[in-house]
Amino acid sequence: MDLYEHQGKDLFAQHGIALPERGVATSPEEAADAAERLGGHVAVKVQVQAGGRGKGGGVALVHSPQEAADAARRMFDEGFKGTTVTRVLVERLVDIAAQFYAAISLDRSAGTYLAMVSNAGGVDIEEVARTEPSAIRRLHVDAMLGLREYHARRLSGHLPAEARAGAAELLRSMYEVLTSADATLVEVNPFVLLTDGTVMALDAKVTIDDNALFRQPDVAALRDSFPIDPIEKRAKDAGLQYVKLDGEVGIIGNGAGLVMSTLDLVAQAGANAANFLDVGGGASAEVMATSLEVILSDPDVKSVLINIFGGITRGDLVAEGILGALSRVSPEVPIVVRLDGTNAEEGRRLLAEANHPGVVPAGTMLEAASRAAELAHGGS
Amino acid sequence: MAILVDEGTKLVVAGITGSEGTFHALRNRAYGTQVVAGVTPGKRGQDVDGIPVFDTVADAVEQTEANASLIFVPARFAAEAIYEAADANLGLIVSITEGIPVRDMAQVNAYLRGRGTVLVGPNCPGLISPGRCNVGIIPGEICSPGRVGLVSRSGTLTYQIVHELTQRGIGQSTCVGMGGDPVHGIGFIGTLERFEADPETDLVVMIGEIGGADEEEAAAFIRDHVSKPVVAYIAGFTAPPGKRMGHAGAIITGSSGTAQAKTEALEAAGVRVGRTPTEVAELAQAALS
Predict the structure, then answer these.
(1) Which value does ipTM take for this structure?
(2) Quick check: A261 contacting B, CB < 8 Å?
(3) Integer Cα distance of A74 and B237 in angstroms
(4) pLDDT tens by residue, A313-356
(5) Which of A44, A221, A264, A372 makes an SS bond possible with A305, Cβ 3.0 to 4.6 Å?
(6) How close A40 comes to chain B (CA, Å)?
(7) Does B247 contact A125 at a Cβ distance shorter than 8 Å?
C-alpha cells in the first residue's frame, strides 16, 4: 500500500524527522487558508499514489494565497495522470543550500533491506545510478542488527561536511519508520541542507507491506483515503485478488501464477483478459459464486473463463459455486469452465448434470483459452 | 536420491491440530511420508490419528528424532515457528503459511544465514519426491516418479505443468515449490545446484513469473554451473505491470522484471522457454528423447 506524501510525512514527524511546516487542503479555499497561515510563499503538491509529480505538473511553487488556491483548483479539476485528486499538500518554501537523496527499500534478491544515499538529489535518481554510480552509497541492513549509527555515518560519508550529522540522523529515523510501520520502502527525494544548516526531508514516499496491516491498525485505517474502482472494492471486500484490465474475456482462476498464465494463453488465442481474478487457495462455493458475480457485473466482459487446478481447492465446490451463482444471476455471456485436480471429476459431473445452456466445458487449459477467446468475439 | 526430501525424512508438523494441519499431515502420511510428530503449544500428550503431539519442537525431536519441519501456523506466529525449528537444528523447514510480513522474513533470513538449515517457502505448496515422500500440499496423485526435477514460484501453475508432464509419461525426481513471496528461503539457484548434483535428475523444469530478479540470477547461474538441460516457463506476459517499489526498486534489480526480460535472460543462457505449460512439457519430452 503506497501512502500519500502527507501521510508519510505524518509518520516522519512521529519519529522526529525535520519537515517544512505544512497543511493538507481538500478545496481551493482550504489551500488559500493554509498558504495564508504559512506566510504566502508555499509549494502546492498534488497527493497521489504515484511518482513523477515534479515533471508532471503536480507541484506548483506560488507566492500568495490566491495563487495557492488557483494552483489547487487546477489540480482538483485536471487530476494527475488520470487519477482523481482529492487533496493537496501546502508547504512553506524553505531556503535550500543542497539537495540529496535517501532510501531504504526491501531488496528481494538479498532478502533484506538496502539503504542508499546519493549526494545528488531532487533529480531523476535512476539516471544518477546509471551515469554517476559513485554518487550513491549503498549498504545492506542485517534485519536482526538494524541500521546502526556507524552504518548511517558510512552511508552519509560522501555528503558535504555540514550535512553529514543531520543526514545520518535522518537515516536512522527513516529506518525506525520502516520497522515501526512495517514499510517495504521509505524514500526521500530530496532531502535538503538548508542555508541555516538544518537537514530536512522535503518528500516522503512510504510503501507499507500489506501482509503486516493486521498489526498496523493506524496505518491500515488510511486505506479508506485511497480511490478504488467499485468492482475492485466489491472483490476486495470478498477477499479476492482482483485487477481490472482492458480486454473482453473475464478470468477466474486459483493461484496467481495459474491466473497469469491463463491471461497469457487468452492473449495468444487472440483475445484480451478483462481482469485478473485469483480466488486463492481452498475457495468455497460461496467464494466462487461471488467471483462470478463480480466478473459478470463488468459490462466489458463478453465471455468468462474459469480455470481451476485443484490442490486445496475442490472441484465439486467450484461447480456448486458456479451453479449457485447461475441461479442468482442470468448471465448474457458464455462461461467456459476447465476443472482439474482435487475432486475435478465430481465437479465436471455436477456441471454436466445441471446442463446449464451458458456453461461450456473444456478439457484442457489451452482448449479453454481458445474457446473463451472465440466466444468473446462472437463465435459459437 | 532425489533432493531435500526422501524416505529418510522424518517430519514434525507445526500446527498439526488445526484443520489444515491435520488434513495435510494425514494426507502426507497416507502418501508414505514418515510423519513422526506434531507440535501445538498446550496440547502435549494428545495425538492426531496416532501422531503424537508435543508442546515444543525440541520435545518432538528428543522423542521422535524428527529431522524436518512442516509449518501450517497462522502468519502472525509463523516466524516464531521457523525460529523454533531452526533452533532445534532441523535440516529442512517447509513453511506453507502465506501472508507472513516481510520484516519477519527479513529477520528469519538473517537468523538462518550460516546455520545449515534449508527453508522452503513461505507461501509455497511444499515439495514432493514422487513415490517416496510428500511434504506439503502438492496433490501426490498428479505426480509420478521419474527423472525430471522441477522448481517453481507458483503453486497451482506447478500442478498444471506437473500434470502435463505426467500425462506424457515424464516422471519427476523432486518438485519444489519455492513460493512467491518477495523474501523466501531456497530459490532457483539453491535448487538448481542440488538437481545438478543429483544423479537421479536428468533435466530441470523451472517455472517463474514476473517481478523480482530471481529468474535473471538463475539464468546467470545456469550459464556458469548447470550442465543438465533446463526448460522454463514464465507467467505474466500480459499481466498488469507490477507496482514498482518507488525508484529504489529499479535501481536494486537493475532489471525491468518483465516476463520478456526474464525469457530473454534464460534463452541467452541456453534455456528453452515454453510459451504455454503444454509447450514446456513438449520441450522436456523432446530434450529427454
Answers:
(1) 0.91
(2) yes
(3) 37
(4) 889 999 999 998 888 888 889 999 999 988 899 999 999 999 99
(5) A372
(6) 31
(7) yes
